[in-house]
Inverse folding.
């Protein structure tokens, strides 16, 4: 298994600003994922982030809006850019080992 | 990607077995069935997975039908802490060759005292 932490755990932001979410893992992993969970909804994959290569984005998500960094095998960041109230969600990172393990999530409210 | 169908909600009495069904009639031969749960305000937690044989671990049992078109997750002695949304997922492949999990709406299980 893996121990995953996310920072911040929650935040309230003004529209038009950007927020960077950090994901830290206690072991080296090749593949990390970023998901979004809108209020009352299920999880939706935003992108897959492999160390040493550009992130692969799912349909409906673009790099300009959700830039991702993956500088090493234990860390990744997701930035939510030019936020609007529709970006209010829980953002979760996960890592792929024998299965996927999820972080606790970052709860974002955009006013 | 194979899709899954689950009842939106179920109730179970504390101490009784909770049996959560899942239909995945379009599952491919090399796709696994995974179960996760999400307790309110937490990240999803892995429970169990299987290909075609029944599986059991310390958390639950997974029963997969012989034709693999459906499965049942069994929590043998449900407790109040098992109240959560349970997701049945058939593992798919994302662009770039990486694995991804496609979450449906899941089943909201409420364990009652």
């Amino acid at each position: 298994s893996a121990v995953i932490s996310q920072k911040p755990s929650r935040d309230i932001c003004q529209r038009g600003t950007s927020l960077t979410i950090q994901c830290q893992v206690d072991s080296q992993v090749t593949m990390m994922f970023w998901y979004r969970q809108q209020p009352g909804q299920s999880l939706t994959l935003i992108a897959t982030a492999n160390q040493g290569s550009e992130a692969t984005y799912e349909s409906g998500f673009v790099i300009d809006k959700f830039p991702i960094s993956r500088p090493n095998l234990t860390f990744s960041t997701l930035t939510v850019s030019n936020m609007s109230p529709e970006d209010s969600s829980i953002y979760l990172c996960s890592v792929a080992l024998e299965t996927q393990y999820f972080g606790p999530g970052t709860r974002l409210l955009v006013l | 990607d194979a899709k899954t169908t689950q009842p939106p909600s179920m109730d179970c009495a504390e101490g009784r077995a909770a049996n959560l069904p899942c239909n995945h009639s379009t599952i491919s031969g090399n796709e696994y069935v995974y179960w996760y749960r999400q307790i309110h305000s937490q990240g999803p937690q892995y429970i169990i997975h299987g290909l075609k044989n029944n599986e059991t671990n310390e958390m639950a049992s997974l029963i997969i039908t012989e034709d693999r078109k459906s499965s049942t997750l069994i929590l043998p002695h449900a407790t109040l802490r098992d109240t959560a949304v349970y997701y049945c997922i058939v593992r798919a492949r994302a662009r770039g060759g990486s694995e991804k999990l496609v979450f449906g709406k899941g089943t909201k299980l409420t364990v009652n005292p």
The CA atoms of residues 30 and 50 of chain A lie 6 Å apart. Chain A touches chain B at residues 4, 31, 33, 35, 42-45, 48, 50, 56, 58, 92, 94, 96, 99-105, 107 (CB under 8 Å). Chain A has no helices and eleven strands. The mean pLDDT of chain A is 94.
